[in-house]
């Protein structure tokens, strides 16, 4: 969720793919036995090949470059050291992760060749959209609806943040689109370097339906209005 991405969360995952064989612990050898040094390359994993005056090294054809051979393969994995099996694990997503962000977990990936360490698990995070918050880098964005009287006369309103509600003073004459910055109320920055800001944008709401009384009052206001907002277009 949006809040979990900001605060950090530990989530369970089911990972499919190759897992370390539980019988041989990844060695590929039958229980009670061990892989032996390859007699062809003497454990080096490579063999030399001469072509005229030049010598080249290539992976040992007997052991595949591992340096060891398995004389008695594990019956569970048939000497592969790994089996196809889904794994249930828990991963910790750091605070402040963005939608599409990636987190690497060393050693949590698929099992490698016999005797080698597992690879890494790379998790791509998708954050569900919030119903009214948006995010831009380290800042959190919010559109704040205001009535015409609130914008014209000024007011003080409660504004939701990810850490609870705060009071925001709206000065008289606030226009649609005016932005207010709440410092330190944004998303956590990487490596614990503080927080971003929250940007609140005023959105003056024009009523779609008016009562007869409201229409009468607005007409009176129109008669009192002396400023022409389109005066600059007449030059």
Rg of Cα set: 33 Å
Strand content: 35-45%
Mean pLDDT score: 88
Our count of helices gives: 3
Helix percent band = 10-25%
Spatial strand arrangement across the major sheet? 11-12-16-15
What characterizes the major β-sheet? 4 strands, mixed
Note the main attributes of this structure.
mainly beta, HSP40/DNAj peptide-binding domain, two-stranded antiparallel sheet, four-stranded mixed sheet, about 240 residues, elongated, 16 strands
Walkthrough of the structure:
- The protein is mainly beta and 235 residues long.
- It has a domain at 133-226: Urease metallochaperone UreE, N-terminal domain (HSP40/DNAj peptide-binding domain).
- 11% of the residues lie in helices and 35% in strands.
- It has three helices and 16 strands.
- It has helices at 2-7, 148-153, 212-224, and strands at 9-15, 18-20, 36-37, 46-51, 54-59, 68-69, 82-84, 87-93, 102-105, 121-124, 133-136, 139-147, 155-161, 164-170, 179-182, 198-205.
- It has a four-stranded mixed β-sheet with strand order 11-12-16-15. Strands 1-8 form a two-stranded antiparallel sheet. A two-stranded antiparallel ribbon has the order 2-7.
- Strand 13 and strand 14 (164-170) form a beta hairpin.
- It is elongated and about 105 Å long.
- The chain starts with a helix and ends in an 11-residue tail after the last helix.
- The mean pLDDT is 88.
């Amino acid at each position: 969720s949006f809040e979990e991405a900001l605060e950090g969360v530990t989530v369970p995952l089911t990972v499919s793919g190759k897992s370390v064989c539980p019988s041989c612990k990844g060695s590929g050898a039958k229980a009670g036995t061990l892989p032996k040094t390859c007699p062809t390359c003497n454990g080096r994993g490579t063999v030399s090949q001469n072509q005229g005056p030049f010598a080249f090294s290539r992976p040992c054809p007997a052991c595949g470059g591992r340096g060891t051979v398995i004389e008695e393969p594990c019956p569970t994995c048939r000497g592969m050291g790994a089996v196809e099996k889904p794994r249930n694990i828990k991963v910790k997503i750091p605070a402040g992760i963005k939608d599409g962000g990636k987190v690497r977990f060393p050693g949590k990936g698929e099992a490698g060749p016999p005797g080698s360490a597992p690879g890494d698990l790379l998790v791509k995070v998708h954050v569900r959209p919030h119903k009214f918050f948006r995010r831009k880098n380290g800042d959190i964005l919010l559109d704040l609806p205001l009535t015409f009287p609130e914008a014209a006369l000024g007011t003080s309103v409660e504004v939701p943040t990810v850490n609870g509600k705060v009071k925001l003073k709206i000065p008289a004459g606030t226009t649609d689109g005016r932005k207010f910055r709440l410092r330190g109320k944004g998303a956590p920055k990487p490596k614990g370097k503080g927080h971003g800001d929250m940007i609140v944008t005023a959105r003056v709401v024009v009523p779609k339906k008016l009562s007869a009384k409201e229409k009468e009052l607005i007409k009176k206001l129109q008669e009192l209005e002396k400023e022409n907002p389109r005066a600059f277009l007449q030059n």
